[in-house]
Amino acid sequence: MDLEELKVKFFFVLTFIYIISSHAVASEVMLDLNVIGNSQKLTLRLKSNLPRKTRLVAALVSPVNQGGNGYFGQNESVVSTNQTAEFGPFLKNKTPLPPGNYLATVTTLLAALQPEEAQSFFGKNGENLSGSQVSTLAGTSEKGVTQTLRFQINSDGSISTSPSDEHVIGSSDDVWQKVQSSGKEIYVKTNGFFYDKEHYSGVGFHSYIVANLPESNIIGAPQSVMNDVEGNCETRTFHVLGTLFFAGKNRSGVALNSMPPENIERNLVVNSPFEKAFNLLCKMARLKK
Q1: From what superkingdom does this record's organism come (predicted)?
Q2: Beta-bridge mates of residue 246
């Protein structure tokens, strides 16, 4: 091999190394979380493009206010050579998990706690991470990757997963509909109480509206708020009968604090997300006649 051939070969080696290293830094992180088995030996399996030995932690909860049984379990794992990580099996007092609604959340540990093999992929504070599943820890500059999965354990021990566009807010009997996808996320309980002219003085509703709040840099700040609303569809006015703030999204987690009913009548703000929710409920109220 002459000198020119060596130069060409060396150039391609350097180019290959550059492509590989650039891909590791700029690559969008992708996670795919699934539940395997049944209540006898429930396991979470994560597929990802994270580096081998990346450390992750999985939390499995069954919130009482979402039709669950209060269960909480946690398990740590690492990404294996086949790009998967498994968590579990999850049990309750060494017995199978009881029926109910469950929420699984898998999150990467802080970048500083990752092994040396994964440090360059994460960066000092996770700044190299990108993608829709990457978020910044409230009140810090630390970035991490999170994936959630909702599922139900049936009475026979089998598992049913929720479709990605289904939202479980409140009890399992509640029916909710998303009325705005951009900006503030608003969900409306569509099986509330409706007034009609045959039995009442006008058309209206009494229901709940849940809004996910913007990210805050205040540690412990609420992430969602639920308003108990009574609306008059003919006068286009409403009363707030109570407000409750929650630690998690979609009325999940601990209830932080509440506000009493307002003794005032409010007008709608034109083109606001709340007006969209109001219009949906009024449409449903008129269909109940």
Answers
A1: Bacteria
A2: 224, 255
